[in-house]
Amino acid sequence: MTAADVTSSVRSGTYDNTASGWSTQTGDIDDAGTVAQDADTPSGEDPEYDEDVTVIGAQLTIDKDTTTPTVGAGGVATYAIALHNPGTITTTGVVVTDTVPLGFTYAGGSAAESSANCTSTSDPSVGERDLDWGTWDIYPGGRVTITFGCNVATSVTPGTYENTALAESVETGMIDHSGPTGQDADTPAGEDPEEDEDVTVTSILNIDKDTSTPMVEQGGVATYTIALTNPGSVTVTNVVVTDTLPSGFTYASGSVVASGAARTSTSNPSVGDSTLYWGTWDVGGGGAFTITFSTNVATTTPVGSYDNTAQAASSETGYIDDEGTLAQDSSTPPGQDPETDEDVTVIARPPVRSTDKSSSRG
């Protein structure tokens, strides 16, 4: 019987090891020979497992989650990275790295340890995207939890952003996307199907225009409502709303109602205008303002359907709607406006009946 030392650097797994023999009469036996090691083993094969050794070495798991699955552009996304050593051997030289998505930058954070020792400290700096937090030795059953926030730039395009942290140790090598071990027990090696670290960024300025008069006679009045909302958490500044009316439509009157928005300059349209403008606004997080106005439809306006879409712009977003990078509604592709809730159909004005009751006598 022989014994062999298993070094601490050996990774967890099952190790097959088969002896071979040779004699003048038989030649090589076992895997490389013509005679099997055991009577029940086919020649040249080794299906048996009674010499296999499973090594339970140093272990390390990593999981990253977010507590802010939805964030308005300009807001703050928060994350937690959890490291755990579920094994019976100390995992040494543990480092954690995380490259956050483009437009996300480090805002600040902290680390908490349990049965772990921080052997070197290297906290990220505010404004960085490539993050690392020094080095740890994590004892059996030990944990390290890193909690941090990221500023999300106002210029970040609305959408869902996946971001996964990586960890590495002397004993395990890299784990997660780039390594041989999945982030969670149910995650295949080299993959990350989970979504609990994904952050969905929403727009910080939305605009929608509707009409309460979808059908109007020639010479009648069409009424519209333009709603501006800021679903984010930061103030959007220098917001302007413009609306170029269809040919034959002119401004008649209107009003504005605001909540959580401050008008920084006033410039109301005049009666008869066809290009409309309502000054500038600062709209706070969660704020909104609504413009309701009516237009006169000329008696000479041709019969037909008239699509009319308002536009908005701000210092943070640029233009939104038909001519901008963001659609009017969430269901509207950028640069298009397939919705019809602001369309007005002009119909023919009924002919005026004569009221002349005179008659001729013979």
Characterise the protein shown here.
- Residues 32-36, 177-183 and 322-331 have low confidence and may be disordered.
- Strand 2 and strand 3 (27-29) form a beta hairpin.
- 0% of the residues lie in helices and 48% in strands.
- The protein folds into 2 domains: 61-202, Immunoglobulin-like (Sandwich), CATH 2.60.40.740; 206-347, Immunoglobulin-like (Sandwich).
- The chain contains no helices and 24 strands.
Keywords:
362 residues; mainly beta; Immunoglobulin-like; 2 domains; 7-stranded antiparallel sheet; 24 strands; 0% helix; 48% strand
CATH topology of the largest domain: Immunoglobulin-like
Overall residue-averaged pLDDT value: 81
Radius of gyration: 35 Å
The level-1 CATH class of the largest domain: Mainly Beta
**Second rung of CATH, namely the architecture of the largest domain:** Sandwich
Task: Classify the beta-strand content into a percent band.
Answer: over 45%
Poorly predicted sequence stretches spanning 5 or more consecutive residues: 32-36, 177-183, 322-331
Q: Which sheet architecture does the biggest sheet show?
A: 7 strands, antiparallel
List the helices and strands and how they pair.
Layout: E1 13-15, E2 21-23, E3 27-29, E4 53-55, E5 61-66, E6 70-72, E7 76-84, E8 91-99, E9 104-120, E10 130-152, E11 159-161, E12 166-169, E13 173-175, E14 199-202, E15 206-211, E16 215-217, E17 221-229, E18 236-244, E19 249-265, E20 275-297, E21 304-306, E22 311-314, E23 318-320, E24 344-347
Parallel strand pairs: 6-14, 16-24
Antiparallel strand pairs: 1-4, 2-3, 5-7, 7-10, 8-10, 8-12, 9-10, 11-14, 12-13, 15-17, 17-20, 18-20, 18-22, 19-20, 21-24, 22-23
